[in-house]
């Protein structure tokens, strides 16, 4: 469905250099990082300021045109996939880091700022921004906030929500609200900023963020532990947590993922082992040395056949590549890569990983599993071909089994990727009727005409 000439003329008046309507341009914005989901929008507007966002929202509201907000399009649940005839507001040109305040350990940035650039800006002052999603080199901070993104350091440092102190948000009627502030403590009224964190663009458009920073750790130690069996890796994780050690990173790869990574990165991984754990600890040098020694001992106690410790920062980066390149390595195997996202209690990790492997075998599918073993977040990754409808039917059957098993173990359908289009069929099952309807009531209170990111989270 095409937008009316009147709407296009009004958008062009607001953003004369930022309106895209040519089919070849619109095609680029018709999908995100989620496999097998795409839809051409009615128009794309590359906005440069909050005021331009406000004016575009008012135009859309006046003509009842839906809006889908987009950053770099790295999302993995279909959150920024357009709907037919919508306006895509792309915020990547609103990328300024407005202020770094080392005295108050805060940073203020527009929502299009790249996550890694934010960490680099903090690093110039001896600080860092802990959340590190796998897409941090290209993902935008506004998208991270909208999806409440996690990352490899989530076990120790938490997720995006834990670092958001304030937001500037454009509401569906064009009003601008400022939520939160630079104060460490603030309990005045409802915590409104938290309502928009993880809301996936369905309640408002985030245009600016204020983030909490932390002092950069003085030392870090990186290790890679190899195991014959996934169960031994899972037991090692349990033992580390039981010993009251909270590493900054505790990641794993299964056998298939190890082989794909080694074929891709050539970093010397043993392709005959059943699992690898990437273990990192950071902090005071003495504490880091002690924790690293304890983790190595626990890994060996639980049958690690080898524990490799990085000798310097360069080797640490090489070892971390084993985990950070997992998705890219798996994506080379088949035409379509479906990266899933579930979380279970840590005590259920071994059972869940085993169930994923059984389900893959039962449905004759290639599935590589990796993820954040320290916080129970797994990424079963289906290697398939969306053109093969019979195989895709088997993928959906396996995914239904995996989600059902996840919920039976007290888990969640998404640990960090969001609900979007990909997971909305299961959200009511997880939340229950009353909680689901409460969430819907909030949506309708703020966006009664469902113009912001329609069809995401809810039908």
Q: How would you concisely characterize the structure shown here?
A:
Helices cover 37% and strands 22% of the residues. With 459 residues, it is α+β, with helices and mostly antiparallel strands.
**Share of residues in strands:** 15-25%
Number of strands: 19
Low-pLDDT stretches are: none
Structural class: alpha+beta
Task: Kindly identify the CATH topology of the domain at 97-215.
Answer: Uridine Diphospho-n-acetylenolpyruvylglucosamine Reductase, domain 3
**Could you give a short account of the major beta sheet?**
8 strands, antiparallel
| Termini Cα gap | 20 Å
Helix content: 25-40%
| CATH class label of the domain at 97-215 | Alpha Beta
CATH architecture of the domain at 97-215: 2-Layer Sandwich
Q: How many H/I helical runs?
A: 16
Mean pLDDT: 95
What radius of gyration results from the CA coordinates?
22 Å
Instruction: Give the overall shape.
Output: globular
Can you walk me through this structure?
Among the domains are: 5-90, Uridine Diphospho-n-acetylenolpyruvylglucosamine Reductase, domain 2; 97-215, Uridine Diphospho-n-acetylenolpyruvylglucosamine Reductase, domain 3 (2-Layer Sandwich), CATH 3.30.465.10; 219-328, Alpha-Beta Plaits (2-Layer Sandwich). It is built from 16 helices and 19 strands. It has helices spanning 5-14, 23-28, 50-62, 115-123, 141-147, 154-157, 192-196, 230-242, 255-265, 285-301, 313-324, 326-330, 349-362, 389-408, 424-431, 433-446; strands spanning 19-20, 43-46, 67-70, 87-90, 97-101, 106-110, 127-128, 164-170, 176-180, 205-212, 214-215, 219-227, 249-254, 275-283, 304-309, 336-339, 342-343, 366-372, 377-384. Helix 15 (424-431) crosses helix 16 (433-446). The chain starts with a helix and ends in a 13-residue tail after the last helix.
């Amino acid at each position: 469905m095409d937008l009316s000439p009147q709407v296009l003329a009004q958008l062009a008046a607001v953003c004369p250099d930022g309106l895209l309507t040519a089919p070849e341009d619109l095609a680029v914005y018709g999908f995100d990082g989620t496999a097998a989901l795409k839809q051409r929008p009615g128009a794309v507007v590359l906005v440069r300021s909050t005021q331009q966002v406000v004016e575009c929202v008012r135009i859309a509201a006046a003509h009842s045109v839906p809006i889908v907000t987009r950053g770099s399009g790295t999302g993995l649940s279909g959150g920024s996939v357009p709907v037919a005839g919508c306006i895509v507001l792309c915020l990547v040109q609103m990328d300024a880091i407005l202020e770094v305040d080392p005295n108050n350990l805060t940073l203020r940035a527009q929502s299009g700022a790249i996550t890694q650039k934010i960490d680099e800006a903090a690093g110039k002052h001896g600080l860092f921004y802990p959340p590190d999603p796998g897409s941090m080199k290209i993902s935008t901070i506004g998208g991270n906030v909208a999806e409440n993104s996690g990352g490899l350091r989530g076990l120790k440092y938490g997720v995006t929500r834990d670092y958001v102190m304030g937001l500037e948000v454009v509401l569906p009627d064009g009003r601008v609200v400022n939520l939160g502030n630079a104060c460490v403590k603030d309990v005045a009224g409802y915590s409104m900023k938290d309502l928009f964190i993880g809301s996936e663009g369905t309640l408002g458009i985030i245009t600016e963020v204020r983030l909490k920073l932390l002092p950069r750790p003085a030392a870090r130690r990186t290790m890679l532990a190899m195991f014959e069996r996934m169960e031994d890796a899972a037991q090692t994780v349990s033992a580390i947590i039981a010993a009251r050690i909270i590493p900054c990173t505790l990641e794993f790869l299964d056998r298939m993922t190890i082989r794909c990574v080694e074929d891709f990165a050539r970093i010397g991984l043993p392709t005959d082992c059943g699992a690898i754990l990437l273990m990192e600890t950071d902090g005071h040098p003495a504490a880091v040395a002690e924790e690293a020694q304890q983790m190595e001992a626990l890994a060996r106690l639980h049958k690690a056949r080898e524990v490799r410790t990085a000798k310097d920062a360069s080797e640490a980066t090489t070892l971390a590549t084993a985990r950070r390149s997992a998705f890219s390595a798996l994506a080379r195997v088949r035409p379509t890569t479906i990266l899933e996202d579930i979380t279970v209690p840590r005590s259920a990790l071994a059972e869940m990983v085993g169930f994923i492997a059984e389900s893959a075998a039962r449905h004759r599918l290639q599935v590589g599993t990796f993820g954040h073993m320290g916080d129970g977040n797994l990424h079963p990754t289906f290697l398939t071909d969306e053109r093969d409808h019979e195989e895709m039917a088997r993928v959906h059957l396996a995914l239904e089994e995996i989600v059902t098993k996840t919920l039976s173990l007290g888990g969640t359908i998404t640990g960090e990727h969001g609900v979007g289009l990909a997971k909305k069929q299961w959200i009511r099952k997880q939340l229950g009727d009353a909680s689901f309807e409460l969430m819907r009531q909030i949506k309708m209170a703020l966006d009664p005409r469902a113009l912001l990111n329609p069809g995401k989270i809810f039908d």
